[in-house]
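Page 47, continued from p. 46.
Same chain as before, 364 aa.
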Amino acid sequence: MVVSRYAEGQSNLNGSPFLFIRANTLEGRIIITSGRLSQFAYLVRSCLTWQHRSLTLVLVASLLLAIACSAETKVIPATKVAFIADQGTGNESRAVLALIAHENADVVLIQGDLGYEPDKALKWDQNISDVLGKKFPVLAVVGNHENYEWNLYQRLLIERMNRAPELHCVGEVGVKANCTFRGLHVLQVAPGISTVAGIEPEDNYEDFIRSSFNNNDTPWRVCSWHKNQHDMQVYSKTDETGWGVYDACLDAGAMIAMGHAHTYSRTFLMKDFQNQEVAHRSSDMRLEPGRSFAVVSGLGGYAVREQKNDGDWFASIYTKSQGATFGALFCTLEQSSADCYFKAIDGAIPDQFRLTLTSDSSAD
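Result:
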């Protein structure tokens, strides 16, 4: 009787499984499946058949093959991301930074309005260093209140980036930049910012978003900017960004993170932002091309506003009208899923949800 035995293993690139190895001990050959053939055809050419050996030899050889064929590959570690905006430099903003430290975040995304007042950039950066450390990764975009010393803020951000080896940006940091951190791809844009010298409120941001996502297959995608369209926030902010940037992020299956409104709000999973068409109302949201959501996490430490806008497309609203205080949104990104929650400095958790990626979102 002929008995067939197999040794199997997987290898990963950028955290996404791409190589499945099967070693047939009787036929003396290796089968590679589940690969991204367009990108890893060279693997197939490098993996040769061998003569029949013992099962132990095959197991060892298949392991060595996986290592040799993917020497530069790695599994993306779980990454906890904090989202804040509308920050300031006072005790409340430091309390939010302390919360971010307590929740063990790996990186913070700040959607604009950093120090608010003149001559606060150095104090703003020192607060982060005091609470989170000089090497803690920060990605911040320009807000309308960076009209005092944006050039200094930008320099401090670049210096901090250079101290964080896993954080990389190409372009104009905080304005129009393509940034990555582990399995996270963040596009920074500045639609509607007209009060900061040198910043264009309309600078082909929509096309920049589309082309940047099309040329990168990092699984988790975030669009980061400061201002809003009126229907995407629950305070009294007016239409300032246009819908084009929302559509570009929607088409890429990228979540949208904003500030400006000094509140917290999150939409349901959307299929059309401009017409406020909801894809579904579950707290489990699958991100994919044509499906996304928008969140304002603007309780970073500088004022809490009341609710002045509403809509049945909002899944969560947390403002002064609901007794809100300052806090941050946290998402722990795994290979293809993420658990998210907003937590206030008083311990309240007014929102929790879960994200998953389709295969198209996690590996183009």
